[in-house]
Amino acid sequence: MVPGSQRKSAEAAxxxxxxxxxxxxxxxxxxxxxxxxxxxSLIQPFVFEMVKSFDVVRSPKDVSFxxxxxxxxxxxxxxITTTYWGPLSDRIGRRPTLLMGLAxxxxxxxxxxxxxxxxWALAARSLNGFFTGNSAVVRSAxxxxxxxxxxxxxxxxxxxxWHVGVMGGGAAGGLLADPVRQYPGLFxxxxxxxxxxxxxxxxxxxxxxxxxxxxxLFRLKExxxxxxxxxxxxxxxxxxxxxxxxxxxxxxxARPGRRLSPGLLTPVARRVLQTNLxxxxxxxxxxxxxxVFAATPPGDGGLGFSPRSIGFSLAVAGVAVVYLQLVAxxxxxxxxxxxxxxxxxMKVMVPTFFAMPCLSYLARHIERLAGDQQARLPQAGxxxxxxxxxxxxxxLVRITGDVLAFTSVGLLVVNIAPSRTTLGAMTGMQQxxxxxxxxxxxxxxxxxxxxxxxxxxxxxxxxHLVWVLCGTLMALAWAHSCALPSSVNVFAA
Length: 493
Description:
Layout: H1 4-16, H2 23-41, H3 47-52, H4 63-92, H5 94-113, H6 118-131, H7 136-145, H8 151-176, H9 179-182, H10 184-187, H11 191-195, H12 199-219, H13 267-295, H14 307-315, H15 318-336, H16 338-355, H17 359-369, H18 382-415, H19 423-454, H20 465-481
Helix pairs in contact: 2-5, 2-7, 2-8, 2-12, 4-5, 4-6, 4-19, 5-6, 5-12, 7-8, 7-19, 8-12, 8-14, 8-15, 8-18, 13-19, 13-20, 15-16, 15-18, 16-18, 16-20, 17-18
């Protein structure tokens, strides 16, 4: 570990000579990236009501299982394709790979909004996952534009965009779902939205994708450096030169479908990816469980929220995320390193998982006070205000840990890549692990949630079960990360 005085001196020198951020291309990449979290989170506020309307659901307590299958299908297709998107981008370039993904994302998300059956929704969500398997390509492109003086600042913007997109998508999903019921004065006569109550939020999400596609098409430049042909005169280099100029000779780019080199998986790389796997598994389970938990009646262990309230709860931490990403994280990373931030973030999140299901007891008390009516929308009163205050506090604490851990893991994965020409393969490998957790996490969480609320068993086998499992997995990820060396704080390529 670098002593504090030496670290401060090194960081002061690095900051003093920091390369300015290439905002034109960086902003374009972030606009491309924004579409992915928006479309990922936009369905969360209304997925409970949407699945409940399908004929395949026989009992409200089965909704969590089928919602988990929808989330899982997205990740299954990501896992199938993610090992091809990364090496493909190493071969044909980052730009065409990203544009292909955005075009497919645009079409498939509209198809999801047209769902009238579970099987249609499943097919559309699966296709959507197929085209979003290239999200790791954005990280590779940003890493290629960066150097040692500005890499952490540039990488810190990716989780910021992700969190802003997740919160914006969640809010839009809650506000725009079933507009005929929510806004009868405006949409009451619309047969289109009466027939397809969840089309409007999907159209709104598709606009974000269309904007990212347009910006990428006209402004995005290729970041992947290629060896120029021997016959090309040096004078031709200029405005057509890629954003990154390599100083060393490069290996041939990986081909799609080619096996990843065993040299990528050093012992340190394996441990980073293993902790990443445990952390993402906990978060994928939480991500699938929270909207279902929030929509489930308090008597069954939930909060009894409407889609609008769920969307609001997803958006509530927006200001905090901007501060944490742009101000707090860069300072903490410069002072303590990405590894410290990674471990601290996981430690901070652990208690929030164990505390979240306890809010159901307060929601149940509020429901009893309201008589037979379900307490769905935020109401005036001390009890309701207390419930929201506690929920917001837990969300803010979790978001703090989320920002620290997930921003850091992006840096760590980039840092362990042996060379720039393997960045796509390394980030693709990490994206594959994330997709695998997206397969297992939602299915396990949905199945366990449905099982736990059907059986009146004591703690921790009641509605706390999934949350306890999430907290345990996150604690294991933190413990496993304690064996990582400080060398992962440095870009190896």
